[in-house]
Amino acid sequence: MGNRLAKAAHRAGAVASALTLAAVLAGCGLVAEENARTTPAVSGSGTGTVQPSVSPAAMPTPTSGAGPACPTLRCTSVLMTGDMLVHTQLWQQAREDAAAGGKPGLDFVPLLEGQRRYIQASDLAICHQETPVALPDGPFSSYPSFNVPPQIITAAKDVGYQACTTASNHTIDRSTDGVLRTLDALDAAGLKHTGSYRTEAESQGILMVQTKAAKIAVIAGAYGLNGLYPEYAWQVDMLDAPTMIAKAQKARALGADIVLGAMHAGDEYASEANAQQKEVAHALVDSGQFTMIYGHHTHSVLPIENYKGTWIVYGLGNGVTELSPWYVVNNEGLLVRAQFSQDASGKWAASDLAWAPSVIVRGPYRWCSVASDAPQGTCATPEADAATRLRTATVVDAMGAATAGAHELLITKER
Asked: Domain spanning 27-40+56-413: which CATH class is it, in words?
């Protein structure tokens, strides 16, 4: 254990740690992963450069980086997607895509390419790296103990992600070595991260990302570790409201304008949030420290709720995954972009919440938006795409999201 800690400390030493509006608009299951092992056939640049904070006095006119028009003096937008769940079929596809492009190894960029346009229309994009990564040449493994190609991380950076959360029920599938490899790969790619750590000192830090207009903090937590135990208690952030609130208070003290809570929790393939999700999310909002809550783990899209003026996106479904013939919801996901605005008193709140439904298709495997403006054209078939969009919209609105102001993200209609 001492050698592991020394090793972690050595690696850490080599890496730098990182308005109230009149009316505020404001995922990892084992069954799907096991199914994916035996699934039969079924029918360029990133976001803009992060810049130092700009004071209101220096910005005399309303401004917005990317996304909808800014209704106040200062705005910033954040995009979130669900689980990056890489199975054997996906790295086989990445190998084929690399070969087709005359490149060695694996290329996951074509799998994620459809997300790029959405990411470019946001100031900050956050992914969820659910599983540990292996060395570039493997060996790789899927369910039940993941050890996936690190090339998925470089692809996430290529399409524009700037940060990823890493707290999940699979974080310690490969013990400390897997945690270290994953964090090293994220650092090498230039992606900020939070949720798992090399050292106890690192675990006390807060992920803070500066956009043009605001300083954004991300606080993560996972409901469990599949019965495994981390080598050190501080290695993975767990889903605990008091602990997350304390971190949020620390983030505020450090100057965070916006604090996001990322929950990895819920019941697999569900269409509604479970008691734990609601209890923790509501406690985080009630603390007054969080600007928005979002989640993943269930391999299904879950409702969006506006609770006391704060948005809670209970489940983003899968960002990428192999297809499941048993659970159609496993193949679907939700991309969410929130715009946050600062009022005259200095308070930040969500002024716009937009979502785009997605699906994974195969032959070749690709992430594909099935939003009603069809930015990628037909994904599966017109009928299947319409069914996915309807299913997603129905679940998203189950807790009154549309009435509270959430709407579909039509990327082709934006400037």
From this structure: alpha beta
